[in-house]
Specification:
Layout lengths: L1 H15 L3 H30 L1 H10 L2 H26 L6 H12 L5 H19 L5 E3 L5 E3 L31
Antiparallel strand pairs: 1-2
Helix pairs in contact: 1-2
Amino acid sequence: MALYSFWNNRAQNAAENLDDRGIFLNHFVLPQISTFLIRAVPVFLAIYFGQGLVDSLLNSVPETVTHIISVLGGVLPALGIAMLMSIVIKDKIQLIFYFTGFVLVSFANLSMIALVFIASLIAYLTYLSSHSNPSTYQTSNGTMLEEKSLNGSTSYSNIPIYNSSVDDDWFEDDHLF
């Protein structure tokens, strides 16, 4: 609410002046009172005066405003799903799984439990197929890497290869070995 920014500015000024009472009032007490006045009083009046007052208030709102509110109310669920999908789906290829699940629930009349079992199977098969190629592996950030050793064979060791022809001091305690 825009009214809370008013109380936040006053609490900020009280904090700059080291006013503990002003911080407490402007941060806890006064915003609660203003919220009570904005929300509880209209609800109390609507309940007290009854359906006649509410009907007359709703009839006084222009029809274009109610149409805009109903359209926006219909868009909100789609916007919420889009926001969730933008968080969950990292690659565009993952949209295939989403739309497949949607089609199976909508048109094949599968239950959500059956869809969970199918999705688990597909996830397991995807996991196995991503690890089946022995010359590549997937890092934690999702990039595919391929390691080749000096003789051309695939190697997965993280041990650095020491080239004895180069004189360097990469290991401090050479005398131990």
